Amino acid sequence: MYNLEQLQAETNEIIQNLLKDGSDPDALYIIEHHVAHRDFDKLEKLVVDAYKLGYEISEAEEVEEENGKVIFVCDIVSEINLNADLITAQQKELLPLIQKAGAEYEGWGTYFEDPNADEDEYGDDGEFFDDEDDDELNLH
To answer: How far apart are CA 14 and CA 82, in angstroms?
Structure first.
């Protein structure tokens, strides 16, 4: 069981640090919810469920832990305003799926958005996700 109050406190701290460092408060941010599972098939089922809710999915990676065991990790991704309530709502939506799958939620992350950038780092349309990728679910 995850402590939502603790997750909200972490979310607020991340946002405050980004804004204190000068990140653009009005930008759209790529929010990556990090998940891990020892069973690839169960991770795959989890991300299919998240995809059906409208999230994008990063390619799953195999990672060897210090003890030699293998885990599979990926990100459940969205593009939203940097808003604690929106991120908390996403966590409330995703955590039941993560728990049901027996996966581990490893928090979320994003990237600094320079308010003085001359151009959008995601291309001319300012979109992180390509529309042509909408029909694909990249797991392998």
So the answer is: 10
